[in-house]
Amino acid sequence: MLQEVTAVRYVTPLREGGSMPGLVEGDDRRLYVLKWSGAAQGRKALVAEVLAGELGRGLGLPVPELVRIDLDPVLARSEPEVQIQDQIRASGGVNLGMAFVSGALNFDPLCFEVDPGLAGRVLWFDALIGNVDRSWRNPNLLVAAGGLRLIDHGASLIFHHHWAGAASWTARPYDASDHALRAFAAGLAAADEELAPPAKEAVERAVALVPEEWLTDEPGFDSPAEVRAAYLAQLSARLAGPRDWLPEVPAR
Fold first, then answer.
1. How far apart are CA 4 and CA 30, in angstroms?
2. Quick one: which of 49, 115, 215, 247 has the most CB atoms within 10 Å?
3. Residues 6+ apart with CB under 8 A from 252
4. What is the pLDDT of residue 77?
């Protein structure tokens, strides 16, 4: 289970990103970037954030810590903007928090170098989850003390928006032509050899961490357990191979 944190103070909106996440202080006195359960993207974006993010962490990739954040809608009183007040009021209960990375800069592939091995592992991971939101235009990478941080995975796992056709996704090739780290990657053979063996257990652990509240009442499923099993089956099938969905990335 993800660590549980209660939001005690709404600090400020973060104006980047379609859902306009907020910066909140938890009862553990840490700052978190809060992703709203009541945002227009819906709870499936939060499911993808947890499943993909915890999978990445399980594979040793630098994803900031994720937590469950309990939000009291009364915190809307401290926000002067009506649109954000409405979002806070619509998001009472369980939300997603990502540990705030202090002093981080947005990654620019023209300004920063990336270790070829790490670039290859990130590209392999993005291909596995079908992450369409790591382009050079919007890399969703931060540069901070200690190196890169991978953020914002809510646009991955797109199969869960249409479960009836989800089976075809497991072999869908990944288009890495615009990937922010493609130019740095030293090919994917080494990344595949390193990450594929532990990925099955990492997927199982990540699926188990998705809050049950976000899996209830899913059309076509009788219980949250069935939804978890469907996510596990999808990613396990994609991993099982042949992994022809991996993009061609020339070795450096």
1. 12
2. 49
3. 116, 184, 185, 186, 187
4. 84
